[in-house]
Design brief:
Layout: H1 8-18, E1 24-27, E2 30-37, E3 45-49, E4 58-64, E5 68-74, E6 80-86, E7 91-92
Antiparallel strand pairs: 1-2, 1-7, 2-3, 3-4, 4-5, 5-6
Amino acid sequence: MKERKFSKNQLTEIRAKLMQDGTEFKCYGRLFKVSKTEFPSMDPIYAIGRDEGLFGPRMNVNKFGPTCVTVYTFDMLGNRTSGKFRYDLIEFENKEA
């Protein structure tokens, strides 16, 4: 797989697009969707998951970093699992075409 290089402006655009509710993108050969939950007294909470219904697999976003999105989830035994979505591997679904 060929690695893509991005300028700081392009990385900022990708990060901003990922922070929008309902954004769909492909990474690791699968389609993912971003969901954003807002409460009046808190910062927004982001989650990324495969769109497989209400209880589909989702991971919470820990942070939107300079080169990747760091995500985490907990299994049934309470063990934390972390992962990353690198910006250079993300391909957005084009809905306008």
